Amino acid sequence: MNKGIFSLLFFVTTLFSAQKPVQIAFLSDVHFQDLYGSFSDNDFKGITNPKTGKQTILRTMDSQLHSTRIFNENYFAFLKALDDIAAKGIKIVAMPGDFSDDGQAYNLRGLHHILNQYHQKYGINFYLTPGNHDPVGPYRNEGGKDDFLGKDGNPLGIYSKENIGKADNKIITKDIAESGYLEILNELKDFGFYPKKEDLFWSTPFNSDVFKNYSYKKALQSANYSTRMYEVTKGFSVPDLSYVVEPVKGVWMIAIDGNTYIPKNIYENPQNASNYKGASIGYNNVLTNKKHLIQWVKKIADDANKNNKVLIAFTHYPMIDFNDGATNDIKNLLGEKKWQLERVPQEEVAKVFADAGLQIHFAGHMHINDTGIRKIGDKMLLNVQVPSLAAYLPGYKILTIQSADKVEVETKILDEVPNFDELFPLYEKEYEALQKNQSKTLWNKDILKSKSYHDFMLFHLKELVRLRMIPSDWPKDFIQKGSTLTGEDLLLLIQNKNQLKEKNIASESFKKWNFDDLLLDVYKFQSADELAKKDIPAERLEQYQVLEKLFIENQSQDPFMVQSKSLFKILSLLSNGDPADHFEIDLKKKVLNRL
CA of 197: how far to CAs of 216, 245, 323, in Å? Predict the structure, then answer.
């Protein structure tokens, strides 16, 4: 073994054996919206909740059920997650982006207040990195939403200017505009974006100071907004809020700002906030327009190695394909612009960052629970997808650093959340108003019978699939034919009764589920990975395996049969990925062990 590497392992192993293992909680895609916030220039504080008497600024249930995230109940889930983390004695929380709901000033203030409360009360230090919803673009931009809930149960528009938005019933406040980097930095500088006196080290991609010459005073100067700019395209300078921090001895956390805001028109004024494309594609654009990050990550990885530090990276965007090998099959079945396939990182992303020296990376963005691993030569990169608190299956991750070469990752699911049903009386009023409007599609009111946060989020997924995913992503003829079928009907399409009898398969038991259940289960696996198995009957999972095997053997060229064959292959791949619940990573042997 190389003498330098042996010394590193000996030093860090001794360090971690002499102290309690370091734990870091990862809370991604919180999408915080301040239900009980206020505006600095308007007296509106929301509508009165008859259940609590509180004035509440909330979005409609209709808008929630058409969105890949909820907007309201995640407020309570956020508090529950923080209470859990505090009870576990964890002192470091990393938040890989989309910590706000479009970076509006009133939401940033509310988030600041809550993070500061938990810091003061429990000594928790928060380290944030931005996502594509915070900021939506590099500079402040006018904005607003048409779908807040008004006191009569109808939608209410809240806008930053009078001449934008579609709603007739409206509130005007500058605090609903989409903040840019400057506003976010000013409001949330205490949460990683600026150094703290107690940090052992803090630096940015624009600070050439090495670790051994570190001083808090120099770090503070390098944190200024004006010093953190780069040229995304010739003539267009935008901010980059990446940083590396040593919150406890022996651990470096590298917070990579993966937002790459590319101008739509290179002849426009660089300060025109509306002239920038969104950043949701993620690392694919980093490879082309934010290359300084790659060199910086390589430098930090080298420095971490030289200075005996364990390096943990977190960003908003995934570095590895998150579809468990099913991406090409999804593309063939649905088309390359469906199922958010444009967000899948190119294989080159994993290669570039593995070569740069990263081994462990936590990401969000997709609102899914997943683990991806790539081995490139003698290097390995692990990408851990942190689930969102605002989507099924709601949860967060805990990283435990056991030693220099062994770390543990555990998924914590939020099944029970106090007060998750607090807003239900307001949705009742919304539903009554919708019933009077014959042109609107009604959402399923049974969601208001949910007994737990888990049930509520599963119902959200079910309605999202019905109202948005199936109509927008799936071939119409496939859905029309499938929607009339039970599991038994699918079985009898590929085997007659005599063939099933020979194989000892009882077709009657397949009647318990239908095609809609099958599609929903595919989305459950896409969202929750192996944890979806808790929400699908064991018998049905076994029947899916039977059908998958029979479809593989089937040679029919009937379009519906070919599509069904693809569907079962996708289901199989999504349900049999790398461990995504509780596992240990042996960095030395480059293996994952399920715990």
Answer: 6, 12, 41
Residue 14 has pLDDT above 70, yes or no: no
Mean pLDDT of the region 74-89: 98
Q: SS3 of 125, please?
A: strand
Residue 196 CA to residue 543 CA, distance in Å, equals 55
Q: What is the dihedral of CA 99, 100, 105, 106, to 10 degrees?
A: -110
Over residues 557-576, the mean pLDDT reads 96
Q: Minimal CA–CA distance to 105: which of 181, 178, 172, 194? A: 178
Query: What one-character-per-residue DSSP string does 139-175 give?
Result: S-B--EEEEEEPTTSSEEEEESSTT--S-SSEEE-GG
540 within 8 A of 548, measured Cβ to Cβ: no
- The model's pLDDT over 364-422, given as tens digits with 9 standing for 90+, comes to 999 999 999 999 999 999 999 999 999 999 999 999 999 989 999 999 999 999 999 99
Cis omega before residue 345 (within 30°)? no
3-state SS class at 388: strand
Tokens for 534, please give them.
């808790």
Cβ 277 vs Cβ 43: under 8 Å: no
Q: What is the pLDDT of residues 203-246, one digit of tens each?
A: 999 987 678 889 999 999 999 999 999 999 999 999 999 999 99
Structure confidence at residue 297 (pLDDT): 97
Class of residue 504 by CB neighbours under 10 A (exposed 0-12, middle 13-18, buried 19+): exposed
CA-CA distance, 351 to 71, in Å (whole number)? 36
d(CA 434, CA 134): 32
**129, 315 contact by CB (below 8 A):** yes
Number of CB atoms found within 10 A of residue 404's CB: 22
Tell me how far apart the alpha carbons of residues 344 and 340 are, in angstroms, rounded to a whole number: 8
Residue-by-residue DSSP string for 527-574: HHGGGGGGGS-HHHHHHHHHHHHHHHH-----HHHHHHHHHHHHHHHH
Handedness of CA 431, 434, 438, 444 (dihedral sign): negative
Average confidence score pLDDT of the chain: 94
Phi and psi, residue 46, nearest 5°? 110, -170
Span 460-487, pLDDT tens digits: 999 999 999 999 999 999 999 999 999 9
Tell me the C-alpha distance between 233 and 276, whole Å.
11
pLDDT at 489 over 70: yes
CA distance 290 to 229: 11
Count of residues making up the chain: 595
Query: Worst-scoring range by mean pLDDT, 11-25, 333-347, 399-413?
Result: 11-25
pLDDT, average across residues 21-44 = 97
Cα(122)–Cα(124) distance, rounded to whole angstroms? Answer: 5
Among candidates 252, 143, 271, which has minimal Cα distance to 201? 252
**Which residue do the tokens 């010459």 mark?**
213
Distance (Å, whole) CA 343 – CA 365:
9
Closest CA to 326 of 81, 31, 594, 569: 569
Instruction: Determine the distance from the C-alpha atom of residue 430 to the mean position of all C-alpha atoms in its chain, rounded to a whole number.
Output: 28
Decide if 31 contacts 67 (C-beta within 8 A): no
